[in-house]
Amino acid sequence: MNIFLREVKANFKSLLIWSGIVILFVVVGFAKFTAYEGNPEMLAILDAMPPAVISAMNLTAFNLTTVTGFYGIMISYFALMISIAAAMWGSDIISKEERDKTVEFALTLPVTRAQLLTAKIAAATLNCVLLLLVTWGATLVGAAPYQKDEKFYTFVALGTLTLFIVEMVFLAVGIFLGAAMKRYKRAGSMAVSILLGTFFLSIFTGLSKNLDFLKYFTPFKYFNPVELLNESKLDIGFTLLSVALIAVFLVGAYLTYQRRDLYI
Amino acid sequence: MNIYKKELAMKFKSVASWVNPIFILMLAFMSLYPSFSAEASLLDEALANMPPELLAAFGMTGIDLSTVAGYVGFIFLFVQICLAIQASNYGFGLVSIEERELTADFLLAKPVSRTQIMTGKLLAALTALTITNLAVWASTLLVINLFNAGNEYQTGSFIILLLSILPFQLFFLAVGLLISLLVKRVRSVTPLSMALAFGMYLLVAFGGMLGKDSLELISPFRHFDSNYILSHSAFETPLVVINIAVSVLALVGSYILYKRRNIRSAN
Amino acid sequence: MSVIEVSHLTKYYGKARGIIDVSFNVEEGEIYGFIGPNGAGKSTTIRLFLSLIYPSSGQAKIFGKDCIQFGPEIRQEIGYLPSEVFYYEGMKVLDLLKYSASFYKKDSTERMLDLADTMELDLKRRIDDLSYGNKKKVAIVQGLLHQPKLIILDEPTSGLDPLMQKKFFNLIKEENQRGATVFFSSHILSEVQRICNRVAIIKEGSIINIQDIKSLQKDNYKKIRVTAKNLEANSFSLPGINNLQQENNTLNFFYKGDLNMILKAISAYDILDLSIEEPTLEEIFMHYYE
């Protein structure tokens, strides 16, 4: 419990910074949205667009003149930001002991490595959940002045849930890297590579139908906001895949961290 | 000179670890171009019928994905993200690494001034970025030659685009360095560079989707918008001036701050 | 000529105290001890000499030149051995030493090899893989290889085994005989006693005493122990008595002043046992820190 509290405290500043970024993003976004809101001309133009254009431009099928449609666009950006934060926290929370030369202290405490890891994972998860709540809250507050259709709250709630799943996948990846990499600097750069790789891959898959199978490799593509809006439920297959990935990475983290040598 | 040499030697691995993925990225995306250009001509027809205001609102002016220039402009954004992270990494880590790894006690006890140290390190980072830069030049020209699908393109405008890399990276190097000196201690470089690079990218990406505003004028992704450069074969001069002015100010500020900085002890 | 001149040097870290109004001079050719417990301000003072940090007020001069203004020039002739040693990852010992030597105008290769030999340092190993003690040896060699005129040591012996410590002290003495001035910061008094000519004692950021090592021991306090019947501590309320402690029939105290006076006071009793000794530096030190 004391380790958990220390970690939460140590990461608090970082949480504030990321919350600031998310809130700034929401503020800027809604400022832009004002121009679109309830503008029927815009709607007519959008309706006139051929579906091919819409999908190629990643505009998806959202009605940008409603808050609901607007959130559908925002969600991809939220996913990117939150995933970066989660991967960074995950890889950092373990490797920082070696970087700050405190690993000897942390590991000579009368706790097992599994306990240490559990406390750290719990702290990082709490951070992620808090950031997600900030995102959720900021969206609701930002949307407050506008007229909402009946689907809005369900959509935002479901969207937040998918954000949470994607966030947890990247957190688990980060934690695994932090626990498994021999040199602490590698953990950070590997996390960056994976983020960039999956992000680019998510765009790459959109370019051609033939590349559709690649979406299994990029969590950014697991949950399509359009389907989410239309069907109001999560894709079961990808939910299970995400849970499996999280489990594999976390188990991997426990196994490798228990066995590895630690250097100062 | 000795600082420059050592710093550069320590950066070689890092340069290689950026150059290779960038090359693979370009190769992968560009290899899709031939099949994409065939499909895309349909799409472009549809786009041509759109009202220009709408295209502007969605940041689609000047994008014609069926042409080599349009497609490369689209890919180049992702190369820019990589280049931004690399340059931010070098900026944030440039002098903060000495304090984090506690080697400042070694280096600063040597008969060199802080200005000399900073200059040596900056030049080494610039050299490393230039090597990356050259590799990107070579990769770009190579993939365009390999996968142009017989479509026409102007090499001149690509050269202009590639010329933008240097000031683009300098911005992130300088701003990262300045931030690293404004804070008490940089614990970890990567999260900071990710935040800076992606923050700047999101500003512009978001603007492109929902209409522009003045905030994105601070972003190098806007200063060196690849679509604009490729379609006009020119830079947007006022934005380039902003970019260079910010970089120069950040560098000057960094020198001043570093000269005055108190270096904390190990214990 | 003074090699180091410190006048009214003060450093605050925000509101936290570093050192306050520190003044002293170190003369050419001396080995100057700088003693104090952890957190007294020893490292702060040294970091100010090297302009790693900047003073809040006051000034330090080395070789007659201001530490900040002429920093690089001064450091050409300074060898510094930090208390904690960390070096660039991935470098071999030889690479680091060459890198270190490359900063100085003279060719130090011969001296470098010589020192590495004396300290039994394996030049081919990677620094990351060295033990703490061996890293310390690297620090010693890189600090001395350019035959500096001023050697600054910040708790140099931690991590060295007794044999290496002895070699190290011999090395420092040799450098001193060659003409180098040594500034030796430590909290281990026996070390300072062994090697230094003069010593400054620092406590909570202020210098509380500067003295010759010998006079510190001889001319001042005597450590007196009296065993006698019906001893009364009150009758020893002479000025100059310190640390008076009674244990049954035995009194322990330190005394500074006219010895005749104290002997008179003692002879009033029926003495069973009496000893008058030079206090060790340790004891003097404890006294200053009470």
What topology emerges from the helices and strands here?
The complex is a heterotrimer of chains A (264), B (267) and C (290).
Chain A: H1 2-10, H2 12-33, H3 40-48, H4 51-56, H5 67-99, H6 103-108, H7 113-143, H8 152-180, H9 184-207, H10 225-231, H11 236-259
Helix pairs in contact in A: 1-7, 2-5, 2-7, 5-7, 5-8, 5-9, 7-8, 8-9, 8-11
Chain B: H1 2-31, H2 33-48, H3 52-57, H4 68-93, H5 96-100, H6 104-107, H7 114-146, H8 155-163, H9 165-182, H10 189-210, H11 220-223, H12 226-232, H13 237-260
Helix pairs in contact in B: 1-4, 1-7, 4-9, 4-10, 4-12, 7-8, 7-9, 8-12, 9-13
Chain C: E1 2-13, E2 16-27, E3 31-35, H1 42-49, E4 57-62, E5 65-66, H2 71-75, E6 78-81, H3 93-101, H4 109-118, H5 132-144, E7 150-154, H6 162-178, E8 181-186, H7 189-195, E9 198-203, E10 206-212, H8 213-218, E11 222-228, E12 241-247, E13 250-255, H9 259-267, E14 271-277, H10 281-288
Parallel strand pairs in C: 3-8, 3-9, 6-7, 7-8
Antiparallel strand pairs in C: 1-2, 1-4, 4-5, 9-10, 11-13, 11-14, 12-13
Helix pairs in contact in C: 4-5
Question: What's the quick description here?
Answer:
By secondary structure, chain A is mainly alpha-helical.
